[in-house]
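Whiteboard transcription, Tuesday session. T.W. wrote the structure tokens on the left side:
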């Protein structure tokens, strides 16, 4: 039998099967909410303060009152970790504007709905680490506020499904001929031993791994450049990588059915992946342990 999942909903911890949200919740009706996905290694949330800052920013962009302060959120995360047996978990946090009669305009005087759950963190399959994953190119058809980590994810959902339908794991999206990101990951380009990343603007979600990989490039002495990246530069890259909370950093070894560079995960990926593992191990061993 699998371990029971206990979720947090509006002040209560309950088994996941028993948690209920009213049908008029604006998350259900309009996708009017924000979320975070926080990896946990050795029972410690990884890069928690950066995740909290992004959550606060997303709430601010949607003008949803932050239901907790930083300590309150950290307490919730620690309580979710403590209720589950896995050393490595991922925490999903969601805040919606709340429950109100259906009307597009913001309702007055509503209380945000707060939801939190933890799941066992799946290991990245060894095969994907060793061989990389495949991706397909797609036009970015999403809205122009992709920096908000919103639960309105239909553009991302459709893009991911197109990738799956094409037999790939992820997509690489372009807007006006320039790289944006994947359906649920940031995309990195290696050319001439330089790591290129698209600008941090409203056209991408700035992943927490975006800042982390930038730091790791610096500590590894890898030149890092943030700038618009054309489709031609992506298609002739030496290496491509993706990053996300659950995939960490992974090589993209095939794009649109053609090999990327040598067709195998490259040396820059190998260095960043090793440095990432080191950062995880340090975080898990140096932070105070959440009590169980
Ligand atoms: N997605 N871009 C998009 C569109 C994303 O959905 C994600 C993460 C990222 C990477 O962000 P981070 O490094 O903070 O995980 C970039 C999460 C994992 C998800 O929706 O499940």
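and on the right, the sequence the group agreed on:
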């Amino acid at each position: 039998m699998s371990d029971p999942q206990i979720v947090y909903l509006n002040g209560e911890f309950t088994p996941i099967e028993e948690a209920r949200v009213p049908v008029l919740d604006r998350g259900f009706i309009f996708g009017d909410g924000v979320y975070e996905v926080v990896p946990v290694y050795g029972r410690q949330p990884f890069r928690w303060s950066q995740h909290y800052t992004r959550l606060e920013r997303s709430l601010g962009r949607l003008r949803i009152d932050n239901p907790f302060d930083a300590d309150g959120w950290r307490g919730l995360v620690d309580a979710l970790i403590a209720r589950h047996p896995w050393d490595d978990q991922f925490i999903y946090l969601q805040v919606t504007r709340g429950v109100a009669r259906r009307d597009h305009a913001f309702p007055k005087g509503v209380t945000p709905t707060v939801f939190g759950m933890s799941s066992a963190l799946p290991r990245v399959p060894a095969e994907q680490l060793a061989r990389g994953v495949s991706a397909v190119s797609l036009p970015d058809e999403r809205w122009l506020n992709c920096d908000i980590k919103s639960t309105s994810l239909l553009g991302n959902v459709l893009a991911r499904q197109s990738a799956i339908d094409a037999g790939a794991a992820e997509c690489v999206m372009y807007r006006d001929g320039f790289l944006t990101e994947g359906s649920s990951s940031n995309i990195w380009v290696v050319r001439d031993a330089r790591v290129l990343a698209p600008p941090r603007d409203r056209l991408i979600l700035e992943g927490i791994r975006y800042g982390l990989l930038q730091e790791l490039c610096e500590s590894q002495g890898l030149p890092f450049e943030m700038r618009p990246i054309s489709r031609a530069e992506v298609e002739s890259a030496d290496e491509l990588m993706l990053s996300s909370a659950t995939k960490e950093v992974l090589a993209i070894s095939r794009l649109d059915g053609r090999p990327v560079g040598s067709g195998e995960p490259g040396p820059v990926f190998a260095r960043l992946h090793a440095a990432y593992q080191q950062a995880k191990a340090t975080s898990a061993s140096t932070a105070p342990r959440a009590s169980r």
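Someone added at the bottom: Residues 37, 156, 181, 184-186, 205, 207-209, 243-246 surround N-(5'-phosphopyridoxyl)-D-alanine (CB under 6 Å).
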